[in-house]
Amino acid sequence: MIIYYYKKYLLPHGRLFGLLLTLFCVQLALGQSPAKDKPNIVLIIADDIGWADIGLYGNKDVKTPNIDALGKAGLLFKNMYVTTSSCSPSRNSIITGRYPHNTGAPELHEPLPNDQFIFPEKLKDAGYYTALSGKNHMGGTVKKAFNRLSAGEGPGGEEDWVRILQDRPKHKPFFLWLAAHDAHRDWQIDDKGVIYDPDQLSVPPMLYDGAETRKDLANYYHEVSRLDYYVGRVVDELKRQGVLENTYIIFMSDNGSPFPRNKVRLYDSGVKSPFIVRGPGVQNAQTEALLMAIDIAPTVLEIVGLHKHQRIQGVSFNALLKGKSQAIRDFVFTEHNWHVFQGYERMVRSGSWVYIRNGFPERRVMATESSKLFPAGKELWEKHDQGLTQATQEDVFLVPRPSEELFNVTEDPFQFTNVATAEKNKKILDYLRVALDTWILETGDSKPKNPTPDRDDIDGNKLPGKWGRGEKPGDIHHASQINLPGPILQKDVKMEKPVDL
User: Taking every annotated instance into account, which residue ranges of this chain make up the domain Sulfatase N-terminal (predicted)?
Assistant: First the structure.
């Protein structure tokens, strides 16, 4: 191949032109396409949208035709987990491919340290045009990875997404990190989202079915629909430019919905994310495969022909995109650290089983969204005080809490029934304990002895006195410098495989 190009093009031309063509020939010989032929990547990250709050995931109330169309044209994942149900730590995990306690920024509103690897920077160095629009929430470190940064426009931050696509340099492949503010409180209503009738909605069983909660849900769904509108505009613009078929579109959320027992929690309602990938060669199907947000970074790098960085803890799922059925991972791990309220919980899922360990069982597990600050939380507290709530709605009031929880998500999808004490589950419980212990040890996790205290009270007010951060998870082990991923496949746990896993 090189000899052919050399004889045909290099000999008749000058040295400079010949040198350029030589580089081109070498690139071809190595199996690398010119930059313009590289696939484009568009990563769309929703804010506070629960996995079950998308039409294609079974929600019969919300209208998301454009997101649904992505799922019908691509691969829809039913078991994708973020690393934490907390905005900034979750986004830091996505961009680094690392667990929160390994990023050095495991708590809410902590900026990502400068020494952390971020995968868009590698794309930029490889010739990609990179842009971030909308919610950053990761700090100044990420600026070095993007040619263009925008705070976003409009109430949901999506208004400039199409313009960014139009303004991009046309001779380069592109990577866009499009991060909406939808659907984050406080609600903002406009003409881009659907207006829902509160009386026509189905109320999730963890929420009190009352007038204020229904209005709250209607406004939340409005913002979900607004994001869907802009997803459609992005797809239309890619199509208009003739680049849709060479573009991977990834849709996901950073954590669960902003309602009691969802956001911050380690149940599926908190850490399970809608996840859709549409792109060149991606099969049109649905998969039950376990996946994590830290797997995005190595997958994107593999898609564009770059090597996985040594600091990434995730694994590539590119094989799944190509229709292969090989096991990517047998375990997912998630964590709950400080998010306005103190917390230290760890979760592992394998097969149909979810095991949660609570380091502070003496404390109520709280989030701002489950306090009295917002309508659904306020109504829940009022009805609880009146003795009108049901058992499925009373989790936030439970003090003390179990130090261990075990659920079979196939039989109990909302994780309402803790079966950790059932004798028949002892074997699977022991197995998941070992898996979690192994992950904690290998990734350098640790329960803080002097943790960051609560900042607010249950009314949503700032507590008196000067607030300050405490010890972070993993600090004593310098976890931000540890690259081991913990168990990924069953062989990584040195214990007999349970029969009913």
Answer: 39-143, 160-305
